[in-house]
């Protein structure tokens, strides 16, 4: 039987004998949430609890790090499937409210999982959950184990340091905490492996407690730390590349990389390699590289004393068993005159393919000039007759025959394509997805003949002439492409944009019983500002909360300033409407008389 049921039975027995009087039951626990300047997460929150009457504390104050006067709510979810819906809690806290941002509520929790969140617009990622375990049914303590690791000498002593890792499990209510005690010191919460480096004998005790309050028996590990042996020399590591090679030294179809590491002092602890700039990978067996092309492998080794060798490097080329040269073609594009000459500019595009080892290089030359590596379409603008030659080579070394295209360029006007850019705007959630819809705005510029048209297409749709910003509201991931054409017929490169549209969550009603007066009225003063819903079911009058108790009139005005400043920041109020509401607060008698001597003409000085 666990300690809690025994204590309860004993107390009941004493009451029956008349030796004790029943006491009023207090809440079994207190759960505390805190908030600060963050709009993405609570500063602290519980993860587990026991069932029964519970005191909920929500503090959003200067003491918890809120230095901006920002409001937050602690609201329990009562609609999402998969969670308990038996607690209705919606606490609005502000550092300048009558409770100085600290609020308490008493609720009754039942076993299961609860979800909580903040309803303030713009704070949608402030969300979490906690589990209530059936503590009355769990009487089994957690299981906790310890593992000691490190470099040992022949006597089993740890050289320079030992690392103790604790692990705890509980099949009932779940693990609440794990603690350790080193060499008879104080019990300390375990959060990460414990590194012990002091030379000498050590003893570490450990224990774990579950959510139901059951604590395991203490476990114990003892070990000895000795001074290091002075190994400061890193290992030696070498690489050998093997495989069938052609006459140029390239490896045909496959190259095998074998690494060998030795250490004369301690021992080799690990060997790693990195292929073509990828991630470092533990080396356990020779590595076969089959991809055609040039490769580079880096390697290193670490000994048991922590010394790591300098990085070594080997490079090699893999080719395929390929005797067929690439296929290469060229096309000429541009604006032609009546005689077929290209006006102002001709653009030559070269395309090469190879089904064997793959294309290694494509080259071109203009009018018998030097061969040049081809990387993008070639623009020829000089007037006159031209010949562009082209060729390609594959990874296996096979070269295509040289081919060429001939054409004539005559003087013309604009040969420069427009520049087109894209901007995607809209409301975004914490994952940078657009909520409800995204608006695509295109801009094209041409400094010569001028822009003739701008086109776009959404996903796999048809190209469409752009006339105004495009609203995309279909849910899912989208790709929008844009292009522009100038008066001379030059077409820009396509500008792509990718984004995701997600559904807008229904805003929760944070104020079921709301102040729905048409304008914001404070005391007897009407600000003439429309009393609108701020986006979560609460009106401006609701968040001003003129009926609460305030220590002074100045305190109430400070509260109104903080609340309305946040509404301006969220786009709910204009600065002018805020000033009218603050003026009404100053002129009201909420919290006591206004500041002595204040007159309507002095209101602006108080804002």
TrEMBL record:
<keyword id="KW-0186">Copper</keyword>
<dbReference type="InterPro" id="IPR008972">
    <property type="entry name" value="Cupredoxin"/>
</dbReference>
<keyword id="KW-0479">Metal-binding</keyword>
<keyword id="KW-0378">Hydrolase</keyword>
<dbReference type="GO" id="GO:0016787">
    <property type="term" value="F:hydrolase activity"/>
</dbReference>
<protein>
    <submittedName>
        <fullName>Putative glycosyl hydrolase</fullName>
    </submittedName>
</protein>
<dbReference type="InterPro" id="IPR058094">
    <property type="entry name" value="Ig-like_OmpL47-like"/>
</dbReference>
<feature type="signal peptide">
    <location>
        <begin position="1"/>
        <end position="25"/>
    </location>
</feature>
<dbReference type="InterPro" id="IPR013783">
    <property type="entry name" value="Ig-like_fold"/>
</dbReference>
<dbReference type="InterPro" id="IPR028871">
    <property type="entry name" value="BlueCu_1_BS"/>
</dbReference>
<keyword id="KW-0732">Signal</keyword>
<dbReference type="InterPro" id="IPR014756">
    <property type="entry name" value="Ig_E-set"/>
</dbReference>
<dbReference type="GO" id="GO:0005975">
    <property type="term" value="P:carbohydrate metabolic process"/>
</dbReference>
<dbReference type="GO" id="GO:0046872">
    <property type="term" value="F:metal ion binding"/>
</dbReference>
């Amino acid at each position: 039987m666990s300690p809690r049921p025994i204590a309860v039975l004993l107390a009941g027995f004493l009451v029956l004998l008349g030796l004790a009087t029943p006491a009023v039951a207090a809440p079994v626990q207190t759960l505390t949430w805190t908030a600060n300047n963050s709009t993405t997460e609570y500063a602290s929150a519980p993860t587990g609890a026991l069932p029964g009457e519970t005191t909920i504390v929500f503090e959003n104050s200067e003491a918890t790090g809120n230095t901006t006067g920002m409001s937050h709510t602690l609201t329990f979810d009562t609609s999402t499937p998969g969670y308990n819906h038996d607690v209705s809690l919606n606490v609005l806290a502000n550092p300048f409210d009558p409770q100085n941002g600290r609020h308490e509520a008493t609720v009754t929790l039942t076993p299961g999982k609860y979800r909580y969140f903040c309803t303030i617009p713009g704070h949608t990622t402030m969300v979490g959950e906690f589990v209530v375990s059936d503590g009355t049914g769990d009487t089994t303590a957690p299981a906790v184990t310890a593992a000691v690791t490190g470099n040992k000498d022949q006597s089993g002593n740890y050289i320079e340091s030992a690392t103790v890792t604790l692990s705890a499990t509980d099949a009932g209510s779940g693990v609440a905490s794990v603690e350790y005690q080193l060499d008879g010191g104080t019990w300390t919460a375990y959060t990460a492996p414990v590194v012990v480096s002091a030379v000498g004998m050590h003893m570490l005790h450990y224990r774990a407690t579950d959510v139901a309050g059951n604590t395991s028996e203490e476990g114990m590990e003892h070990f000895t730390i000795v001074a290091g042996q002075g190994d400061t020399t890193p290992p030696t590591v070498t690489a050998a590349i093997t495989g069938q090679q052609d006459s140029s030294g390239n490896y045909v179809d496959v190259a095998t990389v074998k690494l060998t590491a030795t250490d004369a002092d301690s021992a080799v602890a690990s060997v790693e390699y990195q292929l073509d700039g990828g991630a470092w990978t533990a080396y356990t067996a020779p590595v076969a590289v089959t991809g055609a092309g040039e490769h580079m492998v880096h390697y290193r080794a670490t000994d048991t004393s922590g010394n790591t060798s300098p990085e070594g490097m080997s490079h090699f080329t893999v080719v395929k068993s390929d005797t067929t040269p690439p296929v290469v073609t060229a096309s000429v594009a541009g604006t032609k005159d009546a005689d077929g000459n290209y006006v102002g500019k001709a653009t030559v595009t070269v395309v090469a393919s190879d089904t064997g080892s793959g294309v290694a290089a494509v080259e071109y030359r203009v009018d018998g000039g030097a061969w040049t590596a081809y990387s993008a379409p070639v623009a020829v603008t000089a007037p006159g007759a031209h010949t562009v030659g082209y060729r390609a080579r594959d990874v296996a070394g096979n070269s295509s025959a040289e081919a060429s295209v001939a054409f004539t360029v005559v003087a013309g006007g604009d040969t420069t394509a427009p520049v087109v850019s894209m901007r995607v705007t809209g409301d975004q959630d914490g994952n940078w997805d657009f909520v409800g819809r995204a608006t695509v705005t295109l801009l094209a510029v041409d400094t010569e003949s001028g822009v003739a048209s701008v086109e776009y297409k959404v996903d796999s749709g048809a190209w469409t002439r752009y006339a105004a910003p495009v609203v995309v509201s279909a849910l899912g991931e989208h790709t929008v492409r844009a292009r522009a054409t100038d008066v001379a017929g030059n077409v820009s490169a396509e500008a792509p944009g990718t984004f995701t549209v997600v559904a807008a969550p229904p805003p929760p009603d944070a104020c079921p019983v709301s102040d729905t007066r048409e304008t914001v009225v404070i005391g007897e003063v009407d600000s003439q500002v429309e009393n609108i819903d701020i986006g979560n079911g609460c009106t401006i009058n609701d968040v001003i909360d003129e009926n609460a108790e305030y220590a002074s009139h100045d305190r109430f005005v400070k509260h109104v300033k903080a609340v309305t400043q946040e509404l301006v920041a969220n786009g709910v109020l204009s600065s002018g409407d805020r000033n009218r509401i603050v003026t009404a607060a100053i002129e009201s008698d909420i919290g006591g008389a206004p500041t002595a001597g204040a007159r309507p003409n002095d209101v602006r000085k108080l804002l």
